[in-house]
From TrEMBL:
CDD domains: HTH_YyaN (cd01109). The lineage of its organism: Bacteria, Bacillati, Actinomycetota, Actinomycetes, Pseudonocardiales. It comes from Prauserella marina. This is DNA-binding transcriptional regulator, MerR family. Pfam families: MerR_1. Coiled coil: none annotated. Keywords: DNA-binding. GO terms for molecular function: DNA binding; DNA-binding transcription factor activity.
Amino acid sequence: MGHSIAEAARRSGLSIDTLRYYERIKLLDPPERDAAGRRDYSEEDLTWLAFLTRLRTTGMPIRRMREYASLRRRGTASAGRRKAILVEQRAVVAERIEELRACMDVLDYKIGNYERIERDAALVPSEATA
């Protein structure tokens, strides 16, 4: 059983416009059509959309995603290049994680500093109670 475009949008977390856009730029193969001519997305289509969403979340540019999608259509003959694209993107993600860890360290330091300030302020008797 297939899924309407509205259901595919809901399940993928993408908008209907994004689904049509992905189809137009050839990230997504045109889905089958039902008897009335409406798009009929398969589970395989939804799995592919979930993967595309993950790639976007990693910051992969649409241009690179299009290359990957084009290679995917070629089957196993393109496995080496597809793997290389993912390895390259993994390196980008690893670098971003390190940047975020450094940011987290700064935030933790600053939060700790403010906690010390608040703790020290609580130890000093206020002028109103003296």
